[in-house]
Amino acid sequence: MPFLEYKEKKIFYQIKEAETDKAIIFIHGSGENSYVWKNQIAKLDLNYNLIAIDLPSHDQSDTFSELSLDLYVDTVKNLVNTLKLNGFVLAGHSLGGAVIQSYYFNYPDEVSALILVGTGARLRVSPIILTSLQNDFQEYLKGLPIGAFYRRTSKEIINEYMVETSKTDPQATYSDFKICDEFDVMDKMSLIDVPCLIICGNEDLLTPPKYSNYFHEKLKTSELVIIEKASHMVMLEKPEELNQAIKEFIKKYLAI
Asked: Is 85 in a helix, a strand, or coil?
């Protein structure tokens, strides 16, 4: 399994290699890891290198004493430099959406397109979530499926997700949500000058469709896909629909 050397620590990433220099880098959300992109890494039928990273202090990556949005962006930058990527696509879910937007604002000439999944230009977090993370992590985990999944999602999908989420240290998950709560780039949307694919589950309670509609209204070039019978974890709930949306987007905007 590949690891990236960063600040004398190891950062885990998955990669499905292709015979091309094109790539999509997938960034997970708060308290998650690269597992959430398993159906994209394994089943997305594109001639692209498909890469998913465990952010610092998540699952197989080493623990860092302090977590921040700048740290996450710099980790992705180090991955890009190490793999010598250029003109790549960034895909981010929830917190990962904040990471890829921030990456774009720092390095706009490097990025070919953005895929914004269940995320927003501002990501305010309910105080109830922050309090439960500080005081009772098990209570947080107990309530997580209600907010993260559509009510008819299979128990197998939910249970696998819960196992993966429970691997993340509660303090790291808390830091992730604090990063989200402080994130706000609503006044910078007009600066994004690459094609953007916006994907959201129609039943998403954590980053509701109005967030995605805001993107669609403000971004210069965007495609909006609202996926039915899906909530916040749309990449696990409806992987075929999400993969198809990515394929159509790539074909429309990035075909050579």
From this structure: coil
